[in-house]
């Protein structure tokens, strides 16, 4: 490899890892690997949702990941990474809806979480049907986690 190409690649890699590392530290990136709900409020865009969760009925029994991430480890961290990318991009570019609106994929995850935690209720409501697609719990209980 010619020296000039090696230098250009080295500088590009240095910039990439330098900016990436700075951003990870500045954005408190390690906090997103935890289950601490305060991590969701690192970005001021989510302060209202965090405050709503603090006032909500689920605060004593669930954290953000319980409702907003799949319960399997791979799905959880894939969803956290995807949402982290989307949230950081939207925050950086100013392209986020105000108020924040849950997208279809995340809504489906939240509804599945409702069904998971409240299985005895959902089964009692419709024990003989497949529930596919599941009832949309959030139609009637939209603010249950964030009051």
Structure description:
- By secondary structure, this protein is an all-alpha fold.
- It has 2 domains: 1-33; 35-139, Di-heme elbow motif domain (Multiheme cytochrome fold), CATH 1.10.3820.
- The protein has 6 helices and no strands.
- The N and C termini lie far apart (60 Å).
Fill in the CATH topology of the largest domain.
Answer: Multiheme cytochrome fold
Q: Multimeric state of these chains?
A: single chain
Largest sheet properties: none
Helix content: 40-55%
CATH class descriptor of the largest domain: Mainly Alpha
Q: How many strand segments?
A: 0
- Domain count, please report it: 2
**CATH architectural label of the largest domain:** Orthogonal Bundle
Question: What proportion strand?
Answer: under 5%
Mean pLDDT: 84
Radius of gyration from the alpha-carbon trace, in angstroms: 20 Å
Annotated CATH homologous superfamily of the largest domain: Di-heme elbow motif domain
- What's the N-to-C terminus distance? 60 Å
Number of helices: 6
Low-confidence stretches: none
């Amino acid at each position: 490899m010619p020296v000039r190409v090696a230098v250009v690649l080295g500088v590009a890699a240095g910039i990439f890892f330098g900016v990436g590392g700075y951003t990870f530290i500045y954005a408190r990136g390690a906090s997103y690997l935890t289950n601490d709900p305060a991590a969701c409020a690192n970005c001021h865009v989510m302060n209202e949702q965090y405050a709503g969760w603090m006032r909500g009925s689920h605060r004593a029994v669930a954290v953000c990941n319980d409702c907003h991430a799949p319960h399997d480890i791979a799905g959880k961290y894939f969803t956290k990474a995807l949402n982290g990318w989307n949230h950081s991009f939207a925050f950086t570019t100013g392209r986020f809806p105000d108020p924040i609106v849950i997208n279809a994929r995340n809504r489906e995850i939240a509804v599945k979480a409702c069904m998971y935690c409240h299985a005895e209720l959902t089964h009692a409501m419709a024990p003989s049907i497949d529930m596919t697609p599941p009832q949309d719990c959030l139609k009637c209980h939209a603010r249950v986690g964030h009051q």
